[in-house]
Amino acid sequence: MQTKEHITDLLLLGNQLCFPLYACAKEVIKIYRKPLEEIGLTYTQYIVMMVLWEFGEMKEKELGEKIYLDSGTLTPVLKKLEKSGFVKRQRMAEDERFVKINLTDDGIKLKEKAKTIPQALDGCIHLSYDEMITLRGLLNKALEGTKEKY
């Protein structure tokens, strides 16, 4: 049986997993800001571009699923990327409810500039290589678990 004190302990910030995950993500994204500004991207735009560089043309819905963003969040990001000339959004002829996303020539060329980003951030997280691989694996496992709950 849980005591009142035990329940209260569960509400201590220091006992939460969500807080260090949130704070770490926020701090890492802050570190990305400067190098990404140099190539004209926000962090969210950067992850969109990484998916498109890796997989090529895809539907907006597929893209959102890969980066855990709903269309209400993703659409404005894609519109800004289109305005910047990095992607082209196009309604699909066979079903106009779906939007296809393609890289433009400028979007393809941007990949070369973006190759400097990972090296620029090397060492910003104070974990060994093996610890980072382990952490990434655990976080990916946790993310997969969230898909099953919703």
Q: How would the global form be characterised?
A: globular
Task: State mean pLDDT (0 to 100 scale).
Answer: 90
- Count the domains: 1
Oligomer: single chain
| Separation, N- and C-terminal Cα atoms | 29 Å
What's the CATH topology name?
A: Arc Repressor Mutant, subunit A
Question: Beta-strand percentage?
Answer: 5-15%
Model regions low in confidence, pLDDT < 50 over at least 5 residues: none
Instruction: Identify the CATH homologous superfamily.
Output: Winged helix-like DNA-binding domain superfamily/Winged helix DNA-binding domain
Please count the helical segments. Answer: 8
Radius of gyration: 19 Å
CATH class: Mainly Alpha
Helix-strand pattern = HHHEHHEEHHH
**Secondary structure tally: strands:** 3
The strands making up the biggest β-sheet line up spatially as 1-3-2
